[in-house]
Every structure is written in C-alpha cells, then in structure tokens.
Amino acid sequence: MNKILVTNISYTVKGKQILKDLSFEVKQNEVFALIGKNGSGKSSLIDIILQDLKPDCGEVKLFEKEKFNYKNVGILYDHLPLISLLRVEEIIKYYCTVHKLKYAAIVQHFFEDFEISPIEKSYIRTLSLGEKKRVSILLAVMHNPDLLILDEPFANVDPTITNRIWNVLKRDGRTIFFTTHNWADAEKRADKVAFLGNGQLIAEPLRPAEAIKNLPAQKKLIFTSTQEIEQLLTKEAYYKHDGNIVCFSQPGSSLIGVIAQHTSNFSIQDVDLTDVYLFHLKAESHV
Question: Start and end of every ABC transporter domain (predicted)?
Fold first, then answer.
C-alpha cells in the first residue's frame, strides 16, 4: 500500500518554476527522506501534499485517496504553528483535547525522550529554536498517527537526543516522510532517499547504500580546481563544487600519482550522499 503517491506535480509562483513534473511514492512502513538544499522546493512540496497549496497540475494521494482527513497524519511544518503566549503544558493540553488524549499519558510516554519536563512551565516565546522544535515534533506524534510528514524535523535540535526521538517516531513501523538537508541524518535514518534540485527529482529514489554504490567509484579525490589539472581528467568522472574538483577514483588507480605531480594539496575520502546529490545536480559534472 502507498501511504503517499505524488504524480506529475508542477508548481510555479509568479512565473518561476518551483516544482516540475515530480512523481514518487512512499510505501507503508517506509522512512523516506527528500534531500535538497534550502530553497530547492521541499517545503512547497509538503504544502502541496497536505493540500495547503494547489499545484499547477498533477495529483497527490494519501492512503490511496485524493480526498482524505488528517486523523492518521502527524504534521511538522517548517514554520512552527506554536502560540507564543501559551506555556508548553498549555499547548500540549490543547492538543490532548483535540485528540481526546489524557495529559498524564502524554507525560508518561513522551516527556522523558523529548526532555519536556524542564520546559513544561515555560512560555513558548522563551524557548530556543531547538526546544520549540522538540515540542512541535511531540505535537505531531502524540496521537500515534500512521503517517508522519515532517519538514526539517531536526534542524536546531540538540543531536544528543535525536536518537531517542527517532526511536519514538519509528515505533510500530510508522511511515515517515521527511525533508532534510542533513545528508548524514538521511543516510542513517532513511530506508529510501530522493534528491530534489532545481524543482526536479535528480535521481531515482533508492536506498542510501544503493544510491552511493551507483556512483562511478567508492572513493573520491578532492583538490583545487585548475584548468591544467582538469585537462588531465579525460576519462575520469568528476564534478566541480566550491572551487574544488571532486573526482571519483577506483582502488589502485594511477590518478593519484598523476594528481600528486601537480599538487600536494589533495585528500582521499569515501563517497557519501552529498556526492550522489552534487554529481547528479551539477551542470559541471563530467562522465
């Protein structure tokens, strides 16, 4: 069963193409990460999935239905819908009323993992960004939804507690769709990743390890980009980023020796999801 099905979604604002012909599916019990830089259209896509924005064309289905309610969906927007004049306990109690839950049960099941007790009596306006995010994630998951749709869920959250929160989110095989520009977090948490660049999916959604394995090599050489060195790369796959050349290199390749003749300032590293994204995205990639 598909929990989310996006088909041929396009969206423009004042003549600017934000999303172009997006199609993908998120299956039941899957943790699906949509990766992209700030401004790549991730938040707009979530707004379209949740029917807060109307696309130019295409359709979205949740639970295989075009019309749906949100009883079984937990939502975290990038813009946090918290009322600044309320205390933390007040807004949680309000959501308890909406979902017909007991506050004591929420305290028992969530407060320790989310570290809510120290800020329970605090006003929302006095919280740090990370504390506000923790409260917002709690509000999204407290009614035990089948599907979570989360926009940048762990931006500004203390990394020392993210593992505990992720364990809560993944309970009972819950389906999770989340956006992020944290490559390492997506590689660690997601069953499948998709890459959004220039409003389009720039690679087929795959398991993180599979996406990395499909790169031209599992090692990369990084060195300062110069015309002289680039002219030597006649057969190698590479891309240019932030003034550097990132060149994929097989074990035992003679490329290291060739580069070493022209510069001593280079490094050898394992490839990761960042390379998947940039290699497929950059107009300056070469294969």
Answer: 4-224
Inter-residue contact 60 to 48 (CB < 8 Å)? yes
Strands 219-224 and 266-270: antiparallel
User: Which of 163, 194, 212 is at the close of a domain?
Assistant: 212
Q: Residue 178: helix, strand or coil by DSSP? A: strand
Mean pLDDT of 12-19: 92
Asked if residue 287 is part of any domain, the answer here is no
Instruction: Give the pLDDT confidence of 92-139 residue by residue, as tens digits.
Output: 999 999 999 999 999 999 999 999 999 999 999 999 999 999 999 999
Residue 46 CA, distance from chain mean position: 11
Exposed e or buried b for every residue in 120-156, given b needs 16+ CB within 10 A?
A: eeeebeebeebbbbbbbbbbbbbbebbbbbbbbbbee
Q: Are strands 238-241 and 244-249 parallel, antiparallel or unpaired?
A: antiparallel
Domain boundary among 155, 177, 212: 212
Query: What per-residue confidence (pLDDT) applies to 79?
Result: 79
In this structure, how many other beta carbons lie within 10 angstroms of the beta carbon of residue 104? 9
Q: Same domain, yes or no, for 239 and 189?
A: no
Q: What is the mean pLDDT of residues 253-273?
A: 83
Q: CATH code at 49? A: 3.40.50.300
User: Looking at the predicted structure, is the pLDDT value of residue 286 above 70?
Assistant: no
**Model pTM?**
0.90
Q: Which domain holds residue 270?
A: 215-281
